[in-house]
């Protein structure tokens, strides 16, 4: 018998798939647009050596805004919107793997770990080429001396006049292919998998764990969506802290063109000490907090709105 106040998870078979996918695209795009500036700042902080350009998250935000304007915080965003494809692939894989694993175990933790890890593997295979181009675009402007590829001056001028443009994206894409071939678009793929698979595999079980603990502490009439919205950033902070060292390595491999994850890790420790592994952590948590709230509220709302007609009255908000 389900415990009073316990949160009942909406599973894949409970959903009207047509509603689920049509509403899901809008939710994903809105979330990415909201958190993109924090992702850009995190990338610049992780790639800089020491504190040569920015002293921290707030300093980076102020300097970019002052020197490059609002569009400077959205460099590479147009390319990054292509990750909408990977977002839908992630959601589908997560839900289908949960359904498959449920045939072998009723454990929600096991289903969440397996689903989260598998979903990240599929999503990163699609996302990494987009991320490689996007991260080089993020480094244009104040951080361009830290990247291997630079947009042509005319492209930069056009971008400053028109705001977001695909001109720079095309220019950077051509440079990457000319220098490294097709493999250049998968630079840092292993580092990305080592960062995001554990992060995703940790986020989902921690999310359900925190949501269940909060449901036991909260009054029984408290809306489940509020408890889930609180559990999301708690899970994100936990997972981000654990996986941040690999995120720093991933950023350096992709932007600086390094080939070895292990050698990059050793060199970073030798040059900047153990604290280099905390670089960008505050920006990552700042980015992941609203992201998690938006993802959780959006995703759980999406699932409730996408429930099959015969199940609408069986789930509470």
UniProtKB/TrEMBL annotation:
Membrane-topology annotation of the record: Multi-pass membrane protein
Keyword Ion transport on entry: no
Repeat region (Solcar), residues: 18-100, 107-213, 223-305
A single BP term in Gene Ontology: branched-chain amino acid catabolic process
Gene3D superfamilies, A to Z: Mitochondrial carrier domain
Record's keyword annotation contains Acetylation: no
Key words, A-Z: Membrane, Repeat, Transmembrane, Transport
GO cellular component, one term: membrane
Molecular functions (GO terms): branched-chain amino acid transmembrane transporter activity
Domain of life: Eukaryota
Protein localization: Membrane
Record PANTHER family: SOLUTE CARRIER FAMILY 25 MEMBER 44 (PTHR46314:SF2)
Family: Belongs to the mitochondrial carrier (TC 2.A.29) family.
Name the record gives this protein: Solute carrier family 25 member 44-like
Protein source organism: Gouania willdenowi (Blunt-snouted clingfish)
């Amino acid at each position: 018998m389900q415990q009073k106040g316990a949160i009942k998870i909406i599973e894949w078979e409970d959903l009207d798939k047509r509603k689920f996918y049509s509403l899901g695209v809008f939710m994903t795009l809105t979330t990415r647009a909201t958190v993109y500036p924090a992702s850009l700042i995190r990338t610049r902080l992780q790639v800089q050596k020491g504190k040569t350009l920015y002293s921290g998250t707030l300093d980076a935000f102020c300097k970019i805004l002052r020197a490059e304007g609002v569009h400077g915080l959205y460099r590479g965003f147009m390319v990054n919107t292509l990750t909408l494809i990977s977002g839908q692939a992630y959601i589908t894989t997560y839900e289908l793997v949960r359904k498959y694993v449920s045939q072998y175990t009723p454990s929600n933790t096991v289903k969440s770990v397996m689903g989260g890890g598998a979903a990240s593997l599929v999503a990163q295979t699609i996302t990494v080429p987009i991320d490689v181009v996007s991260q080089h675009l993020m480094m244009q402007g104040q951080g361009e001396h830290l990247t291997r590829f630079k947009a042509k001056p005319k492209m930069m001028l056009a971008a400053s006049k028109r705001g977001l443009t695909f001109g720079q994206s095309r220019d950077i894409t051509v440079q990457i292919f000319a220098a490294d071939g097709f493999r250049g678009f998968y630079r840092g793929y292993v580092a990305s998998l080592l960062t995001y698979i554990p992060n995703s595999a940790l986020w989902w079980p921690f999310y359900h764990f925190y949501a269940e603990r909060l449901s036991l502490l909260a009054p029984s009439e408290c809306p489940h969506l509020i408890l889930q919205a609180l559990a999301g950033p708690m899970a994100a902070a936990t997972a981000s802290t654990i996986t941040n060292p690999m995120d720093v390595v991933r950023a350096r491999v992709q932007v600086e063109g390094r080939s070895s994850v292990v050698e990059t890790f050793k060199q970073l420790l030798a040059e900047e000490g153990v604290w280099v592994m905390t670089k960008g952590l505050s920006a990552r948590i700042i980015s992941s907090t609203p992201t998690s709230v938006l993802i959780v509220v959006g995703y759980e709302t999406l699932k409730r709105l996408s429930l099959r007609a015969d199940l609408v009255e069986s789930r509470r908000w």
